[in-house]
Amino acid sequence: MFAEGLKGIVAAQTLISHIDGKEGRLIYRGYEIGKLTRGYSFEEVAYLLWHGRLPSQDEVNKLERKLNENRCLTPYLMELIKLLPKTMDMMSVLRTAISSEGTLEYCWKPTIDQAVKLTAIVPTIIAYRQSILKDQMFIEPREDLSHVENFLYMITGSIPSKLVVSALETYMILTLEHGMNASAFSARVTASTESDMVSAITSAIGTMKGPLHGGAPSGVIQLLNEIGTPKNADKVIREKLLHGEKLMGFGHRVYKTHDPRAISLKDKLLEAREEDGWLDLAMHVEKVAIRILNELKPGRNLYTNVEFYAAAIMKSINLDLELFTPTFTASRIVGWTAHVLEQAENNTIFRPRAEYIGEIRGGV
Ligand code: ACO
């Protein structure tokens, strides 16, 4: 059987998350995502994804300590990042930096410890690289701050407000994991060859980089900037669709109704609403786009996906455009590593077939 893009094919059984695309539900290890964003920290939900259950206070303290202890980059890694050409985009830097961690410490079989270490260094790689590009002093990680607080601290140089931390933490929890998406699949395919955790995560980062996957939030900002004011929405959207362009931040392979992550992010933004009018523009564009998509693409069930309101969150916390996909990576690495661990537990190498549709030529 041939299914383009493996649409609808079940490629693995998993205990990590469940997506109900018809009802618009996302569940991590048995818990509704809305419950997790309302009552738990990034560290607690990461623990849940890695271990299969929520941690006790003692267990979460230990995980926080371990993440803190592993935040610093080795001199070797700092040197390597410094040597990379300034024109290299941040996702390629992350891919190269993570790939360089591929020492014996990370050999098969993957462990939770390896997952924690890789998760711990991603924000520092981003912040360090940003300091080089901006010719600014590097703000060293602080051990007394949570994972999300520290990330914001290293990027901005000041302790973030509770509101800002809560906005980014909500986004990061919502995007920790999402079933067999393209990057998780890449990670699992690499792990299925009994390659190591670092190689699997390197594959995943390369996959995440593409605009149809992790690159959408910056596309959303570009779309909203192009629209500029609510009265232009109808014209710009219609023109794009009539030219066969896809609207960034809309549509999803699995959700054929509202993406529950987009709803949670929108709620969060409404809670922390500021007077800059940007959220109003985003909500107006959402309404107009859904109406026009229904008209021009009837029956495709196209709604906003997580990336649409992720862009609004990133904008509300003043994150540079180039940091959107890397920030997504800083959260999704938890899901990837959970998938690698699960793959390793009950491994069969991925080896689908390709159907040859060329001709068979007579030979000399
Ligand atoms: N804008 C306009 N039309 C769309 C969009 C969109 N954003 N998404 C899907 N469609 C249309 C397609 O043109 C196609 O129409 P057709 O039947 O006339 O050919 C139909 O809907 C089905 O689209 P597919 O591309 O086959 O849907 P698929 O499930 O393969 O794609 C995807 C899902 C890649 C996310 C797609 O919706 C898309 O490209 N969206 C824009 C990019 C984006 O927002 N990506 C972020 C996704 S979320 C994430 O990765 C975390």
Automatic annotation (TrEMBL):
InterPro entries, per the entry: Citrate_synth-like_lrg_a-sub (IPR016142), Citrate_synth-like_sm_a-sub (IPR016143), Citrate_synthase (IPR002020), Citrate_synthase_AS (IPR019810), Citrate_synthase_bac-typ (IPR024176), Citrate_synthase_sf (IPR036969)
Pathway: Carbohydrate metabolism; tricarboxylic acid cycle
Record key words, sorted: Transferase
Ribosomal protein in keyword set: no
Catalyzed reactions: oxaloacetate + acetyl-CoA + H2O = citrate + CoA + H(+)
Pfam family, one: Citrate_synt
Family: Belongs to the citrate synthase family.
The protein's name in its UniProt record: Citrate synthase
